[in-house]
Please model this.
Amino acid sequence: MENKDIELTQRYFDLELSEDELKSFENKLKDDKTFLEHVQTYKEGLDEVEVLYQAEKEERIGHWRSLIHKENAESERPENAKSSKVILLKWMVGIAASIMIFMVGKQFVGTSSSIDMASELQVAWDREVGLDYASMRGNKVDSMKSIIVTAYNAFDNSSYDEVIAILRNYPQQKTYYEDALFLKALSNYRKGEVQVALETLDTIINYQSGRKKDVAMWYTGLIYLEQEDLASAQKYVTITKNSPRIQPLKE
Model:
């Protein structure tokens, strides 16, 4: 089996072939009996690896390493030299098993990366972006500002139901309306009402003034990350994976 055919077969089972490549591949299966046998053999190898994959992690890693050593050794015996199918099967299984060991290794690395991301996520929350209402406390003239400060104090004390109660009827036409929505959104999230929080943050993101848009996008990204929805999170924050960092999205 030529190298290009091996690569083509791998890509076929990984569902990576283009429409034209797939048609060409299927035609070759019909026209080339030897190629068909090789593809079937490759599939047998994948099936064997899949069976081993069901075992516990440590047990299956041991199986895979043993399999690679055994099959490679057997394929080199003189009595097997003329049996292309045996050699190909064992070679394919060895390759597939090697790939699976690599993938499990990646899983362990991924676990470490997940820990780093969790740590970075906590740092991102601890920055308390946009929660700078302490500077408003000295103002006793502006009644609307006073309401926001009172709600912020309740939030700071983890009294999330109180925050929502204070801001429930905050007038949309008044100044700091987006601040009211923002504090309610974070309070909802702290209460476990994820969807309500996301919908409220989305209202802020699309609000006409755009005053709190960046802050709302930041927390939307953090929430999606905590929900392990990386694809959605990347629409709102920038994430570097190798050395996990969460930064505001650059539009």
In short: Confidence is low (pLDDT under 50) at residues 80-87. The first helix runs from residue 3 to 13.
